[in-house]
Write a structure and sequence with these properties.
Strand order of the largest sheet: 2-4-5-7-6
Largest sheet: 5 strands, mixed
Structural class: alpha+beta
Order of helices and strands: HEEEHEHHEHEE
Number of strands: 7
Strand content: 5-15%
Radius of gyration: 24 Å
Number of helices: 5
Shape: globular
Helix content: 10-25%
Length: about 270
């Protein structure tokens, strides 16, 4: 009986194939083995807007206005995602700044590993210097790894690091970047570099230059005061500044101090959290 059953099954499959050939019907394809569902964020992650809707978001890596010159892999939507503890600490800092007539504005929050991999590929392509004039005018691209501007891992991928600035209220809208427009050095005087509704921090965001060091002695006056205002507001709530970048802060203690996540920056990644 086993042999008969096998033969009948074979006959049925052959007949079905013949029917498809005659009718032109198309069988539903099996999903490819690689089409596994994309990872979602652990429940400890939230969209910043679910904790504080008043913090401005200008997510640069979803746009072409960044040192790569194109939207970065893994950034599906202009959304700030952070661990809940980091988001709540930002909210506390925001409350204090609002009382003084300022608001926080984030440029980047959680960063998937695939985005870091995109940065690494770009850095190895020495011929691609389309954004050099603005973001790294004085740095030879072959030095980006050695000088620490690009690395194969980023603290952002752990979910508690944020790049941000402060904006004087009432906030004006920053105009959109037009790909191909003339670029100006990120350390140029504020009136000459790309417009940003941020207060003057002495350089633009993601400026690969020593002038971006938070306490660079050449940055004085109102620019230094603005950096100290940002740093003071965040340090008070448990953040630690990266000395080489005035905009870069990590909340401590990190809930995931040694895990580098790769879920996409998208609402579905934190849906229901």
């Amino acid at each position: 009986m086993t042999g008969l059953a096998s033969a009948l099954r074979t006959l049925a499959v052959t007949a079905a194939a013949g029917l498809l050939a005659v009718t032109g019907a198309v069988a539903a394809p099996s999903p490819p083995a690689s089409a596994a569902q994309e990872p979602k964020a652990p429940r400890e992650f939230v969209a910043l807007a679910s904790v504080d809707r008043t913090i401005l978001q200008e997510m640069r890596y979803t746009t072409a206005h960044n040192f790569v010159g194109e939207p970065v892999d893994g950034y599906r939507q202009p959304l700030c995602i952070l661990t809940r503890s980091a988001a709540e600490a930002l909210h506390r800092a925001q409350v204090g700044l609002l009382a003084r007539g300022y608001t926080l504005k984030v440029y980047d929050c959680y960063r998937p590993q695939r985005a870091v991999d995109h940065f690494v590929r770009w850095a190895k392509d020495l011929a691609d210097e389309r954004m050099k004039e603005e973001f790294y005018p004085l740095v030879d691209k072959s030095r980006l790894f050695a000088d620490g501007y690009i690395a194969e891992k980023s603290g952002h991928s752990r979910g508690s690091t944020v790049d941000l600035t402060i904006v004087r209220l009432p906030a004006v809208r920053t105009r959109a970047y037009v790909p191909g427009e003339r670029l100006r050095e990120c350390y140029a005087p504020r009136a000459e570099r790309f417009p940003d509704n941020s207060v003057d921090m002495g350089t633009g965001y993601d400026c690969f230059d020593t002038l971006s060091h938070t306490d660079d002695p050449r940055v004085q006056g109102v620019q230094r005061a603005h950096r100290q205002l940002l740093k003071g507001a965040l340090v008070e709530q448990g953040f630690v500044n990266l000395p080489e970048e005035w905009w870069h802060f990590t909340f401590k203690p990190e809930p995931f101090p040694s895990t580098f996540f790769d879920f996409p920056v998208a609402r579905r990644s934190v849906a229901g959290h």
